[in-house]
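Hi,

I'm pasting everything inline rather than attaching a file, because the server keeps stripping attachments. The sequence lines come first, and each chain or strand is labelled.
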Amino acid sequence: DAKTTQPPSMDCAEGRAANLPCNHSTISGNEYVYWYRQIHSQGPQYIIHGLKNNETNEMASLIITEDRKSSTLILPHATLRDTAVYYCIVRVRTGYSTLTFGKGTMLLVSP
Amino acid sequence: KAGVTQTPRYLIKTRGQQVTLSCSPISGHRSVSWYQQTPGQGLQFLFEYFSETQRNKGNFPGRFSGRQFSNSRSEMNVSTLELGDSALYLCASSFMESTEAFFGQGTRLTVV
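And the predicted assembly:
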């Protein structure tokens, strides 16, 4: 079973920041938080990952709470092309650990 | 840099037939994983290959098999197809085990 909980859907206005929450209260000390997204009928796209520090790349920012029990993916200026299902996944980075996808959050960006 | 390439993109097969799907990973990537996506079950892990050896396997029947070649390209095979095998099959490659995985566009298999 997925170790994360995400809201099933969220809406965001184009140009505004999209803040997608994820709860991972049972995360272990060696597990990272990964975010992927899947635009309809395409393969999932890697967005970002982090362990305990906040991370930022050209796509998004990842904010992880100090107790690591939850995190937020931030898309600073959402566009219509950001409409997708966003998956929050926790996994270790050693051995042969798989990506366990839950149901994710369907983000709808509207004009 | 070319991404993960999966062929074919679409496939229609008849119940009872077998099918082989192909995946070419990103150059330099040595790990290849396969996933099945259906509307009912979502994205489910099938298996992972690294250095031509299956390292991890999901909860799928033995009709699902795979292999990896010395150039890291991978194939998966489904024998005795059932209607329920209709799905989007996704391949992901990563540089090493458990590093970031990058997915291909998938092969849409329809079993009739």
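The two ends of chain B are 37 Å apart (CA to CA).

If the labels don't parse on your end, tell me and I'll reformat.
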